[in-house]
């Protein structure tokens, strides 16, 4: 605290004070560190150590107990890039992102706009729209498993009403990824809706009032006021959904198990199989490192190009 | 004052809760506690819990604590982590294809050792099942839940299609013909279904006497190459492809639940199933369910089926007292009475043939003679390396790989090529494992 009010302790607030020790100079940093310490300890144990351990393992072959035995340099990585299976799972992951992220954002924006209207009983709908937030991935997947069931599923009953041939949602390579994406979009909706709705509620009402006086219509307001004012929220949701999509696991495990024909074998699922079924920790670690880099690059790109369009107040 | 009261009440409540919890986990502190990891869920879990409870009540020296550890794959991943440490369970239930890993891990004591010490009569256990778990002349684990594949069929639909429900098809061409008739005669029904679960492929290979890997199915040495892409392997794929072209083959992907519900709702006439789900099917089907031997090619003699399921392993590094206690429980599980209960409530085979004389089985067979078909198919098996089943550490991985080949089959890709690719992948994995294990 002495630093903030140097005159009371008789110190001169100058940067070039040769007699100040290093200990004193880094005083503020020390205090900051003290506050950060609890989370730093937790992070080192649960994030940093595993991170470096994974990078270390990715340069080794591992035996059947998962212990590193032979150093192979970048071999694991080279093999991955030559493996059609791995490239397929990268492709599936990007397709999955393409199917899920924009759709969840657009649908939840739409729902949030609806829920933002002042109507009688709107609270009921707000609760319903946010409700999928309270459903676990496992419970949702099992529910959707029933919906997709080829013999008794609701979905096939509905489409057969329209005279469309029944679809084997989870076993047909053309549909499986879409089916998993549908489940994921539904799962994402609750959270995205809640965040976007919160963002909408935060927009200053006077902006709408003054633009109404100027004669602006609903869609003009939407384009010129709502979307720009909401852009930080939308950006946040996009970034978070993107990272979540990269890390999708539960739905895949329960709905398709990565099949049919590897079409839904997303990267995290492939990593799980390599690590815990095949017990090939070296290869799995290399896949983790690649996934980490991919997420990093995509997020950086997002910050570089999309964030420019974000309007911070 | 009021706050103090509330705090006091909470403290009291939590202490009661805590003591209640600890009371649950230590039934009796003087008893030797045996931790038993298993992967049984659904009806088998109920049957298992009953056997464990009976054992705990039958004596007061040993207390067995069963712990569900997820599917076979999940629990094997856990065991690999704790095997050989203090955290390892006394008894661990490992899936058939995890056996080779267990043997090589060095974290287990072969049950043969305790059997010899206690002069346990090994011959009371079913020979074919013992054969599977015997490597280099030593029985490594205590068989427990053993099943084989069977074909389950809708007997009512058979009648409707003009087929004799008491004389199910046996060969590929007979199955193909029956599938056609079933599809034609029953609206909305496909004749046959083959789940993408590579165990069935392994079995259809063994029934022809085909070996899955070299070195006599890995039984006389470490396997170095996959051999399932042989003519015999191709036979299976060709047969399934023919039925696919006929439009009589249903595809449920990897979902056994969807397949069962398809069968129960009469969308599938015949399907390959584990004998372990027979009891459930008999109970739930609104029609008569028949049981048949698994199919074979027309020109190849039937060799029999490989035993599937799981067995019980003893952890190494436990005190001699605990080891003996764990083995005592294993003996109890293998007794005719336990096995008879187990068989009737699940469909797993009695690993102790003495069980067939138990009244509960005799009574049950009178009511549902179909049970017997599965048992007969199993007893008709000729003991060869093919029917003893493949032994390889990488079996779990080879199933992941084969599952892709079966996907290829359904997607209409070249059959020999799909099998060759799968074999190549298995060979690569073997080569890499050998490299990693060299040190």
TrEMBL record, chain B:
Protein name: ABC transporter substrate-binding protein
Residues in the signal sequence: 1-27
Subcellular locations according to the entry: Cell envelope
Species annotation: Terrilactibacillus laevilacticus
Coiled-coil parts of chain: none
UniProt cross-references to PANTHER family, sorted A to Z: ARABINOSE-BINDING PROTEIN-RELATED, SN-GLYCEROL-3-PHOSPHATE-BINDING PERIPLASMIC PROTEIN UGPB
Key words of the record: Periplasm, Signal, Transport
SUPFAM superfamilies attached to this UniProt entry: Periplasmic binding protein-like II
Phylogenetic lineage: Bacteria, Bacillati, Bacillota, Bacilli, Bacillales
PROSITE patterns assigned to the protein according to its UniProt record, in alphabetical order: PROKAR_LIPOPROTEIN (PS51257), SBP_BACTERIAL_1 (PS01037)
InterPro entries, per database record: Bact_solute-bd_prot1, SBP, SBP_1_CS
Similarity annotation: Belongs to the bacterial solute-binding protein 1 family.
């Amino acid at each position: 605290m002495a630093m903030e009010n140097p005159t009371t302790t008789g110190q001169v607030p100058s940067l070039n004070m040769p007699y100040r020790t290093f200990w004193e100079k880094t005083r503020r940093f020390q205090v900051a560190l003290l506050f950060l310490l609890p989370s730093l300890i937790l992070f080192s144990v649960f994030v940093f150590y595993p991170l470096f351990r994974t990078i270390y393992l990715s340069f080794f072959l591992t035996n059947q107990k998962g212990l590193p035995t032979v150093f192979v340099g970048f071999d694991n990585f080279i093999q991955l890039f030559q493996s059609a299976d791995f490239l397929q799972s990268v492709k599936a992951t990007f397709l999955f992102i393409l199917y899920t992220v924009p759709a969840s954002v657009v649908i939840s924006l739409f729902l949030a706009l609806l829920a933002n209207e002042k109507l009688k009983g709107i609270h009921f709908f707000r609760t319903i729209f946010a409700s999928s937030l309270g459903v676990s991935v496992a419970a949702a997947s099992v529910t959707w498993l029933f919906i997709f069931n080829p013999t008794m599923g609701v979905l096939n009953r509905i489409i057969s009403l329209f005279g469309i041939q029944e679809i084997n949602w989870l076993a047909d390579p053309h549909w499986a990824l879409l089916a998993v994406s549908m489940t994921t979009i539904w799962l994402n909706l609750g959270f995205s809706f809640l965040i976007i709705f919160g963002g909408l509620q935060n927009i200053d009402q006077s902006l709408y009032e003054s633009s109404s006086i100027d004669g602006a219509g609903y869609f003009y307001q939407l384009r010129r006021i709502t979307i720009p004012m909401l852009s930080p929220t939308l950006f946040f949701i996009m970034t978070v959904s993107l990272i979540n999509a990269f890390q999708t696991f539960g739905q895949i495990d329960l709905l398709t198990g990565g099949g049919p024909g590897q079409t839904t074998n997303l990267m995290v699922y492939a990593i799980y199989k390599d690590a815990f079924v095949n017990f090939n920790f070296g290869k799995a670690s290399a896949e983790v490192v690649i996934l980490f880099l991919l997420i990093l690059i995509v997020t950086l790109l997002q910050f570089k190009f999309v964030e420019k369009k974000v309007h911070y107040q | 004052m009021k706050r103090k009261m509330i705090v006091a009440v909470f403290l009291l409540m939590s202490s009661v809760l805590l003591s209640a919890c600890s009371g649950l986990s230590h039934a009796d502190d003087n008893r030797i506690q045996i931790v038993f990891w298993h992967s049984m869920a659904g009806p088998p879990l109920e049957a298992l819990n009953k056997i464990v409870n009976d054992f705990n009540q039958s004596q007061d020296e040993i207390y067995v604590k069963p712990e569900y550890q997820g599917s076979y794959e999940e629990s094997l991943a856990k065991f690999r982590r704790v095997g050989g440490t203090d955290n390892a369970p006394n008894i661990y239930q490992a899936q058939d294809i995890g056996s080779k890993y267990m043997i090589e891990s060095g974290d287990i004591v072969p049950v043969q050792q305790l059997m010899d010490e206690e002069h346990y009569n090994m011959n009371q256990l079913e020979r074919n099942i013992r054969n599977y778990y015997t490597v280099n002349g030593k029985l490594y684990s205590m068989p427990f839940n053993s099943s084989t594949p069977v074909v389950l069929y809708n007997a009512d639909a058979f009648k409707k299609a003009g087929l004799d429900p008491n004389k199910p098809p046996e060969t590929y061409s007979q199955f193909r013909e029956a599938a056609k008739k079933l599809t034609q005669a029953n609206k909305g029904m496909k004749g046959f279904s083959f789940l993408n679960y590579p165990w069935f492929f392994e079995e259809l290979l063994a029934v022809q006497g085909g070996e899955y890997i070299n070195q006599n199915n890995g039984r006389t040495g470490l396997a170095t190459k996959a051999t399932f892409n042989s003519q015999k392997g191709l036979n299976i794929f060709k047969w399934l492809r023919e039925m696919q072209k006929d439009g009589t083959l249903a595809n449920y992907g990897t979902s056994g639940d969807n397949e069962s519900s398809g069968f129960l709702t009469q969308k599938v006439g015949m399907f390959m199933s584990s004998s372990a789900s027979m009891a459930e099917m008999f109970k739930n089907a609104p029609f008569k369910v028949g049981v048949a031997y698994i199919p074979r090619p027309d020109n190849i003699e039937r060799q029999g089926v490989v035993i599937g399921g799981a067995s019980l392993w003893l952890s190494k590094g436990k005190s001699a007292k605990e080891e003996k206690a764990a083995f005592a429980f294993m003996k109890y599980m293998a007794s005719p009475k336990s096995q008879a209960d187990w068989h009737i409530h699940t469909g797993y085979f009695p690993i102790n043939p003495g069980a067939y004389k138990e009244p509960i089985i005799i009574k049950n067979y009178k009511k549902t003679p179909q049970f017997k078909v599965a048992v007969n198919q199993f007893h008709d098996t000729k003991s060869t390396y093919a029917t003893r089943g493949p032994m390889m550490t990488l079996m779990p991985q080879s199933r992941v790989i084969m599952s892709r080949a079966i996907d290829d089959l359904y997607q209409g890709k070249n059959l020999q090529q799909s099998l060759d690719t799968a074999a190549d992948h298995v060979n690569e994995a073997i080569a890499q494992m050998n490299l990693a294990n060299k040190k």
